[in-house]
């Protein structure tokens, strides 16, 4: 029986966390954290000078010049988005699907979230025409949209938005008076960085875009929460930063000094960090491509992953087999695949998709083995897909989807 109130089965309003790296922590980062562990205090609200300077250098190397008085740090991107939403006021527009943590931050403040369909070629940002239509409809119904949140390198779809789509969407948003927040958590995890063009909206319209980055995307473990935001170099950007600092101060949302030291070290991008990041991205790209092949071969649908440590799978074509197994919505699909695969398989409803849509996000980190030794072996191996632990995981994934394909063919009605 299909549930009509999904909140009655699991915490569907919240989570899941960002896809985990699934790798041992870099030794140099552990050393920095250990050296700073004697400092029991937190950073000042908004971050200390060393962390802010490191963030400025990070963005400047990516063509986004930044000064310390235009940057803020917080213990994770959710705290930053909560502060931004509180500072800007009004309702929030997001793409469908979108990162699982965006909407709860907005709803916590009692604001409305409006999901807008994405274009065919990518996720992470709304179709520009659908955005204009939705903004005007919301205003006609008494709403007050003021903020658009997008991600040009996306969770959950693992796609990278083409520059022309970014241009059209951001120009449409700014034309309607929306401030744009660009979540660039995954920008440093492009699977083919030399063949993929990533355009930050802040490069287009720097006076209208705030950029935020959660360091758990590329640089730090999830358990070391740290994120940074870069504000427009305008008077309004300065006022927005001041209001965000007020909110963070009220929340007591400060980065612990040891984590801030590790974050500053990572954002400085020394050789040890860049070499690890390059190796980790290469590993996850290979595993994601293999996983993509496995699910596509079964008849399921998924865009080819271009960034991150995940892929987003639509099992709609296998719905007949799933229905026969008692799986009729995304929550039931999440339960079924999590048990079948022994790995997280959060349903698309957690990312703003319809409960009835049979979609899940799969993580590549869960396919690297079950111990630090196995995962470290994956990182150092020239042929990680041939390692026993990876082969076992990919075989299990492939067989689970192949079984669904075979069942779907048996249950397919005669023509």
Task: Give a description of the structure.
- This protein has 14 helices and 9 strands.
- The chain is globular.
- The two termini are 27 Å apart.
- With 415 residues, the chain is an alpha/beta fold.
- The strands form 2 sheets. It has a 7-stranded mixed beta sheet with strand order 1-7-6-5-4-2-3, sandwiched between helices. Strands 8-9 form a two-stranded antiparallel sheet.
- The longest helix is centred in the C-terminal third of the chain and has 27 residues, at 271-297.
- It has 2 domains: 27-268, Type I PLP-dependent aspartate aminotransferase-like (Major domain) (Aspartate Aminotransferase, domain 2, 3-Layer(aba) Sandwich), CATH 3.40.640.10; 272-411, Aspartate Aminotransferase, domain 1.
- Helix 7 links the parallel strand 5 and strand 6 (209-214).
**Shape-level CATH architecture of the largest domain:** 3-Layer(aba) Sandwich
| % residues in beta strands | 5-15%
Radius of gyration: 21 Å
Largest sheet, spatial ordering of strands: 1-7-6-5-4-2-3
Would you tell me the overall average pLDDT?
93
Number of strands: 9
- Total domain units: 2
How would a textbook summarize the main sheet? 7 strands, mixed
CATH superfamily label of the largest domain: Type I PLP-dependent aspartate aminotransferase-like (Major domain)
Judged by helices, strands and strand pairing, the structural class is: alpha/beta
Q: What is the H/E string?
A: HHEHEHEHEHEHEEHHHEHHEHH
Look up the CATH topology of the largest domain.
Aspartate Aminotransferase, domain 2
What's the number of helices? 14
The helical percent reads: 40-55%
Low-confidence parts lasting 5 or more residues at pLDDT below 50?
Answer: 1-12
How far is the first residue's CA from the last residue's CA? 27 Å
What is the level 1 CATH name of the largest domain?
Answer: Alpha Beta
Q: What sort of overall outline do the alpha carbons produce when their principal axes are compared?
A: globular
